[in-house]
Write a structure and sequence with these properties.
By secondary structure, the chain is α+β, with helices and mostly antiparallel strands. The protein contains 5 helices and 5 strands; from the N terminus they run H-E-H-E-E-H-E-E-H-H.
């Protein structure tokens, strides 16, 4: 027999031995890592937040929908209404839908938001068994505000980092 044939037999026998050795060992599976153990800049999903007055922060401007390169955000703007906290008219959002199936997590929607209404969260969505499970509706996005650890950067903070204000020299 040639050395190539002997080498093949040896490698096959070795592979079967390793497989047999691990075949009856118990499984060890780790759970989902908590957000605190991840890197500070790790971002996985989205949330809609409320403003300092407790109102929904989204004003329905559709800037996030326009800038999204994957075209996964759909915003339905509502009529302007009077804010109870400030007494001024402000825009409202009737519906906000974000489809995570095609999201590339570029964070452009967060950066362009003028009122910091959409933010990233540091925890992934639960795995789903259908495509509809990966579509984040307005209710799911507002639930993420309280249920998941928010990412450190808001749209204002990220834009400020890109265009720092120059100090006036005296």
């Amino acid at each position: 027999m040639s050395s190539v044939g002997l080498n093949w037999i040896w490698q096959s026998t070795r592979a079967l031995w390793v497989t047999g050795k691990h075949l009856f060992q118990p499984y060890t599976t780790e759970g989902i890592r908590p957000a605190e153990s991840r890197a500070p800049r790790y971002r996985a999903s989205f949330a809609l937040v409320h403003n300092e007055h407790g109102e929904e922060a989204c004003i329905g401007c559709k800037l996030c929908e326009k800038i999204c390169p994957s075209d996964i955000i759909t915003v339905t703007a509502g009529p302007k209404s009077l804010s109870e906290a400030t007494g001024k008219k402000r825009g409202t959002c009737e519906d906000f839908v974000l489809d995570l199936q095609a999201c590339i997590v570029c964070e452009l929607c967060v950066q362009v938001c003028p009122v910091d209404a959409i933010v990233m969260v540091r925890e992934q969505e639960q795995p789903g068994y259908s495509r509809e499970d990966l579509v984040l509706t307005m209710d799911k996005l507002y639930a993420n505000e309280h249920d998941k650890a928010l990412y450190w950067g808001s749209g204002s903070a990220l834009m400020e980092m890109q265009n720092p204000k120059k100090e006036a020299s005296s």
